[in-house]
Prior knowledge:
- The complex is a heterodimer of chains A (277) and B (236).
- Helix content of chain A is 72%, strand content 0%.
- By secondary structure, chain A is mostly helical.
- Chain A folds into two domains: 9-208, no CATH class; 232-276, no CATH class.
- Chain B has one domain (2-235).
- Chain B has helices at residues 2-25, 35-45, 49-63, 77-88, 100-132, 136-140, 144-183, 188-211, 217-235.
- At the A-B interface, helix 4, helix 5, helix 7, helix 8 and helix 10 of A face helix 2, helix 3, helix 5, helix 7 and helix 8 of B.
Amino acid sequence: MPDTGLNNPALRTDTVSMPVPGTLPPPELPTALRLSMLLRCLAIQGSWNYEILVGNGMGFCVEPALRQLPGGPEGQPYKDALARQSVYFNAHPYLASLAVGALARAELEQVPAARIERFRTALCGPLGSLGDRLVWAAWLPACSLVALLLFGFGWSPLGVVFGFLVLYNIGHLGLRDWGLRAGWQHGLRVATAMGHPVLQHGPRYIGRVSAVLGGLALPLAVHRAIGGQPPLSPIPMGVAVATPVLAVLLVRLQGRAEGWRVVLLLLAAFVLYSVVR
Amino acid sequence: MELLAALLDLVPLALLAGVVGLDVVSFPQAMISRPIVGATLGGAFLGAPEAGLVCGTALECLALESLPVGASRYPEWGSASVAAGAVASVGATSSSFPDVGAFAVAVLVGIATGWIGGWTMVKQRQIIAGFARPRLDQLAAGSRKTVIGLQVFGMTLDLARGTVLGALMILVARPLAVLVNARWSVGEDLSRAIIITAVVGVAAAAVWKDFHAISGTRRLFVAALAVGTLLVVVGA
Lengths: 277, 236
């Protein structure tokens, strides 16, 4: 299994040495507050930059919860907590909601600042790695292949777009919402939630499904995209031979040439040839 | 009058490019920025959703390869696909495939805009960092106004970036597509096949690279490929 950072000693130390938030039942997360933080989580990368990365976005997402601190938005606890949450942070944008939930609870329970800061730092690596593997490398390509399959089956533009967006966002919004609730529920013991089977084993199962989706989708999508010509006529047969040859070439070139750059050059040459000759 | 009509077409398209560009990173990452969505919308705005969909499918095959993993720099497919969809609609009707000349230019414009878009995203992030730097003291003091202001600034900048990029590319590329369409000399079926072979080759390589390390997936992929091919032959 790839290293997801869950063995980070800082994270482990925090999760086992934090008896109070871990042993108390989680306080209720009011629906209005949850929705407010969830909506803000959709914009967590709004000010992403090379210096504090998603740090300001974290502060932005946790802020509605911090208003419940003693003294409200004008009080010193609010200002100290917001300042703590708006420094450098890095995570996968969807799984950052797990950190938002956990940190919001820790701040409202007024856990000592040093402990919150240590915990916050320890979360960065695991949340980035888990999210990249599950979402960018598995769920997104799988949904993209479903869209190609729907296109190959002859679905209308509206059907393909709607089918893709509904499927993708069931996973997307579900993950963000689960993350926020799980983070709030587990507080500083959030490592338990990060061991969830979907996060740990999901990419492997989605990968297998994607291999099947890819195999089915590509021939069907090609058939429709070249105009549905009889498959045993010369042009479709040529495509059936040339496509795997190009694919093998690109696999062998891995790391030396990206496919889109190769296509850019090939197509530019082809357009010039067709226009000039 | 023609200029006014062109502007009336351009404004909603440019705004669409901005909104779709915003979705790539800033808000809400619901993947309306995937090429198969963005290009279809771009084509649909000009009355040619089918042409947009075909162009979006081609770009989607390329986008399968460039996943936004880690801190890698990748093409910004959102605004790019709206521009590409708009270009693919040149000469197309509501239910027709794109003309081959326009299709080839649209795919090229999609890739080029994605490339330029990736560069503009880097610049945008540098601008946000520059905007944040003099306000770090206020952030350290827990200023709510500064936190929200930075967030709003970043998203507004991103929206403007996608809008301007989309507008410029559409302005340049649509007349080019008209010109290329008029001079296109290679047969339609062969041209379409060449373009599709190139992009699907990239998609097949991407699927293989993404999943081949997982045990059992190679056999599953090859078996499914055989079934898919059989479906095409039998279905025809």
